[in-house]
Amino acid sequence: MPSATINVMEAAARKAARGLIRDFGEVENLQVSRKGPADYVTEADRRAERRLRDELAKARPGFGFLMEESGATAGEDATRRWIVDPLDGTTNFLHGIPHFAISIGLEEDGEMVAGVIYEPLRDELFWAEKGVGCYLNRRRLRVSSRRRLEDAVLATGIPFKGRGGKTAFLSTVGAAIDRVAGVRRLGSAALDLAYVAAGRYDGFWEFGLSPWDVAAGIVLVREAGGFVTDLKGGAARLGGPSIVAANDRLHAPVRRMLRESLNESDLALAS
Ligand code: IPD
Ligand code: CA
Ligand code: CA
């Protein structure tokens, strides 16, 4: 049974998701208008964040927040805060591509202890709590058991204009292309991590992600029996320069493959 904390996170995610689904429908109409849906999507994103903040604050009045749109807000309880991405996969949403999610993580004393990633269009609620396990709706999740790189499907994120990290990305993806069964870029880092937890992907790596992209996903992968670190193998840090998540058998080989592909300066930047 999910705990009271998970119930609070789930209720907030479902409430915000109802708005996102409506707005996603509207985006399809705006796609053909001259102005396009960009401003509308910015508003949809903000509305979702406000809903999440209201719901979470109502249920746990003392907790602080770190949210993508509104930044950090200290709470009376200095030990706990919600780390929230109201819409992960914005570019997909903007283009009418049905792959995006809401991500809510709970940090306690500097450690991620609970995570909910909700994909509204498929009604997939990925959730995990430290020591309790990782679940998709009511089904227990476990990372995949593939042990060979050549059988593995890995996900990543492609940097875009203004993001930097192009050469590091190209080196790592080049190495992966030579060694693995497939590389995917679906456009939501939160769902990428959830999919590693669910065993759909065998691993995931990306550079330059923000705390709200990975906060919930870190708990999911760990509780599903996977490993999630930076490129050096140190504990994954929120807002750190790199993240590597994989099943327990492939984590070390994936990390080695990525590291070995980088030149010295990219390696220094990514670690
Ligand atoms: C983005 C997605 C994407 C990742 C980007 C993120 P957003 O988040 O997670 O997969 O590659 O780096 O910024 O902007 O859609 O919330
Ligand atoms: Ca994001
Ligand atoms: Ca976002």
Question: In words, what does this structure look like?
Answer:
The chain is of the alpha+beta class. It has helices at residues 4-30, 38-59, 90-94, 166-179, 189-197, 211-223, 251-261, 264-270; strands at 64-67, 71-73, 80-88, 101-108, 111-119, 124-129, 133-136, 139-140, 153-156, 182-184, 203-207, 227-229, 242-246. The strands form 2 sheets. An 8-stranded mixed beta sheet has the order 2-1-3-4-5-6-7-8, with helices on both faces. The termini are far apart. Bound molecules: D-MYO-inositol-1-phosphate (IPD) and calcium ion (CA) (2 copies).
Which ions, cofactors or small ligands are bound in this entry? Answer: D-MYO-inositol-1-phosphate, calcium ion
| Secondary-structure content class | alpha+beta
Give the oligomer, counting copies of the same chain as homo and different chains as hetero.
single chain
- Supply Rg: 18 Å
Biggest beta-sheet profile: 8 strands, mixed
Give the averaged pLDDT, no decimals. Answer: 96
C-alpha end-to-end distance: 38 Å
Strand order in the sheet with the most strands: 2-1-3-4-5-6-7-8
What is the number of E strands? Answer: 13
Helix residue percentage:
25-40%
Low-confidence stretches: none
The H/E string reads HHEEEHEEEEEEHEHEHEEHH
The helix count comes to 8
Portion in strands? 15-25%
Shape: globular
In short:
With 271 residues, this protein is an alpha+beta fold.
Key phrases:
271 residues; alpha+beta; 13 strands; globular; binds D-MYO-inositol-1-phosphate; binds calcium ion
Write the topology of this structure:
Layout: H1 4-30, H2 38-59, E1 64-67, E2 71-73, E3 80-88, H3 90-94, E4 101-108, E5 111-119, E6 124-129, E7 133-136, E8 139-140, E9 153-156, H4 166-179, E10 182-184, H5 189-197, E11 203-207, H6 211-223, E12 227-229, E13 242-246, H7 251-261, H8 264-270
Parallel strand pairs: 1-3, 9-10, 9-11
Antiparallel strand pairs: 1-2, 3-4, 4-5, 5-6, 6-7, 7-8, 11-13, 12-13
Helix pairs in contact: 1-2, 4-7, 5-6
